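Q&A log
Question type: sequence-to-structure
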Amino acid sequence: MAAGRVLCLDFGSKRVGVAMSDETATLASPLEILAAENLPTLLKEISAMVARFHVQTVVVGYPVGLAGRIGPQAKKVESFISSLGKVLSGIPVTTWDERFSSVAAIKATTTAGTKSRKRHIDKEAAAIVLQSYLDSENFKKDRASE
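Response status: OK
Response body:
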């Protein structure tokens, strides 16, 4: 993972939750929710965010089933990643297992007492996926430096 900001996308058929890391790629924060219905518009919005925040890596939540199987939603994510890779030339796009991220996001927003929970779940889920990715990458770096 290159140093710098990491953007995470939780791709759904109606909405895309967006989270961003800090500049040290240590801490993930929910950013916003984008509409997913119009793919060209969505790709332009993501491309603009990548440029504005000087993103070094994009992570996309990958919906693997509980048994580890790839289902129809994973195929949609793969197609989305293919389109995204074409507009983000030079920026690495990788996937990260998103199992249980929505459940964790629901619990987090319920615990936080967020009134408009439904609107926040997608970006909270993206932040949970991103934090898991960042923790894994930073653990690898720490192990390599020992």
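Response note: The chain has one domain: 5-144.
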